Amino acid sequence: MASRGRRPEHSGPPDSRMIDIQTKMTERALELLCLPENQPCYLLDIGCGSGLSGDYISDEGHYWVGIDISTAMLDAALDRDTEGDLLLGDMGQGIPFRPGSFDGCISISAVQWLCNANKKSDIPAKRLYRFFSSLYAVLVRGARAVLQLYPENSEQLELITTQATRAGFTGGVVVDFPNSGSMGKGLQSSPLCSLATSSQLSLARAPHKMARRGLMKKSREWVLEKKARRRRQGKEVRPDTQYTGRKRKPRF
């Protein structure tokens, strides 16, 4: 049995059915990334495992870096001579790359593990926020992240999307396995195969958190929205008045 909070490790080489499923999911993820045609991109694969998704990324002419918490899975990727660079790391501790390093990000069946905990000190909401905020930083402006996941329930999906939004991402959920009943209501369905309930979280890194709404920086609307966002984050903010966002005369 796999430990809570981390992905299960599979021994032995992947069978043809697993490879086919992983390839289809990766193909769907790249489709949702909306990458420029005929242009190689530098992508991040979170929870890369044995490199099956990376193989498809390489076949499509892109370059990639994979990060995974499992040494066994990374060893399997090395044995398979995958073309990407590999890094051992816990995504819940943040993504350790320089800002603006990647043109896009995919993750296949990994992010839902952040909703669990290995120890008492692991707080899912904090680990998710640390993951999304660091992911936001390592993407170039306007880039997208597509995260395929298997949430256990609607509460997990809401927890994930809430922390992604809090970190600055925009986007939405695409249900690719719409057999889940309540979770599929009101969401766009795009059947891929019928193994289990799965969701694609398609996120976009906006050039500026306010710019996407057409708000001029330092304007009254800009200031009010910034204060409202800080209130939602539980921070202490001064009350709004008629002078909020008002330009002050220069002082001598």
Automatic annotation (TrEMBL):
GO cellular component: cytoplasm; nucleolus
Catalyzed reaction equations: a guanosine in 18S rRNA + S-adenosyl-L-methionine = an N(7)-methylguanosine in 18S rRNA + S-adenosyl-L-homocysteine
Matches recorded under InterPro entries: Bud23-like, Bud23_C, Methyltransf_11, SAM-dependent_MTases_sf
Localization in the cell: Cytoplasm; Nucleus
Matching SUPFAM superfamilies: S-adenosyl-L-methionine-dependent methyltransferases
Domain of life: Eukaryota
Pfam families, per the entry: Methyltransf_11, WBS_methylT
Residue span, Methyltransferase type domain: 44-144
GO biological process: rRNA (guanine-N7)-methylation
Annotated segments matching region Disordered: 222-252
GO MF term list: rRNA (guanine) methyltransferase activity
Residue intervals of the 18S rRNA (guanine(1575)-N(7))-methyltransferase Bud23 C-terminal domain: 211-250
Annotated keywords: Cytoplasm, Methyltransferase, Nucleus, S-adenosyl-L-methionine, Transferase
Oligomeric and partner information: Heterodimer with TRMT112; this heterodimerization is necessary for the metabolic stability and activity of the catalytic subunit BUD23. Interacts with GRIP1.
Family of this protein: Belongs to the class I-like SAM-binding methyltransferase superfamily. BUD23/WBSCR22 family.
Functional description taken from the UniProt entry: S-adenosyl-L-methionine-dependent methyltransferase that specifically methylates the N(7) position of a guanine in 18S rRNA. Requires the methyltransferase adapter protein TRM112 for full rRNA methyltransferase activity. Involved in the pre-rRNA processing steps leading to small-subunit rRNA production independently of its RNA-modifying catalytic activity. Important for biogenesis end export of the 40S ribosomal subunit independent on its methyltransferase activity. Locus-specific steroid receptor coactivator.
The protein's name in its UniProt record: 18S rRNA (guanine-N(7))-methyltransferase
